[in-house]
Amino acid sequence: MMTLSTHANHDPAELAKFSQLAHRWWDPESEFKPLHDLNPHRLAWIERWISLSDKQVLDVGCGGGILSESMARLGARVHGIDLAEKPLGVARLHALEHDIALTYEAIAVETLAQREVQHYDVVTCMEMLEHVPDPASVIRACAQLIKPGGFVFFSTLNRNLKSYLFAILGAEYLLRLLPRGTHEHGRFIKPSELSRWARHVGLEVREIEGVHYYPVTRQYHLKPGPDVNYLMCCQASL
């Protein structure tokens, strides 16, 4: 059995940053517009690999619940976790108002992994790895939580010059798609690094898909080329 990190794998400044904006999480024209626009694409990508209907699903770093709710609407039994209490409060209220059955919990993924070994058919960890001090620890926990043969889906940002120009200068300063200071380029993760960490804990990398934003149409598309944002599909060994 893998030994999981028990240290506090979170950055208080990052939690405070998203807590401050929690009340705007479900406003599709707010700072979270990119998540609302991207969500249908990543949901369809997940469904290409596994039908979510009647699956036990864990959403790590769920925030206000945009992805969690959309998976629950497809029939998944979703458990969303996060360490930021205010976004979780927003997520619980929104689910209650829309009569969507799912659960949320304020807990570290490493702690949950000690309680629910091989419990989930699907684990998602989207737009979260670049916000924690030790992303490899999160990946180890996800591997511990997934059932044999189950799927783990990650999304994060590549670390290179193009990602600095597009994700920080472009998205935060020129196009103002995100608040300034949302990301730190030094925390971005190269696909080779994420692949290595995944393989090290028994996850097979099945696909890497690039996420591309077109300013003229203001739309996202998924296609090969993980130059900036990218998704990674991994599968646990049987």
From TrEMBL:
UniProt keyword Cytoplasm, yes or no: no
SUPFAM superfamilies associated with the record: S-adenosyl-L-methionine-dependent methyltransferases
Gene Ontology BP annotations: methylation
Domain of life: Bacteria
Substrates-to-products reaction catalysed: a 3-demethylubiquinol + S-adenosyl-L-methionine = a ubiquinol + S-adenosyl-L-homocysteine + H(+); a 3-(all-trans-polyprenyl)benzene-1,2-diol + S-adenosyl-L-methionine = a 2-methoxy-6-(all-trans-polyprenyl)phenol + S-adenosyl-L-homocysteine + H(+)
UniProt-listed CDD domains: AdoMet_MTases
Pfam families assigned: Methyltransf_23
Pathway per the UniProt entry: Cofactor biosynthesis; ubiquinone biosynthesis
A single GO molecular function term of this UniProt record: 3-demethylubiquinol 3-O-methyltransferase activity
InterPro entries named among the record's database cross-references: SAM-dependent_MTases_sf, UbiG_MeTrfase
Keywords, alphabetical: Methyltransferase, S-adenosyl-L-methionine, Transferase, Ubiquinone, Ubiquinone biosynthesis
Residues noted as binding S-adenosyl-L-methionine in the record, renumbered to the chain: R42, G61, D82, M126
EC number in record: 2.1.1.222, 2.1.1.64
Family the UniProt entry places it in: Belongs to the methyltransferase superfamily. UbiG/COQ3 family.
Role description: O-methyltransferase that catalyzes the 2 O-methylation steps in the ubiquinone biosynthetic pathway.
NCBIfam families: UbiG
Record protein name field: Ubiquinone biosynthesis O-methyltransferase
Lineage: Bacteria, Pseudomonadati, Pseudomonadota, Betaproteobacteria, Ferrovales
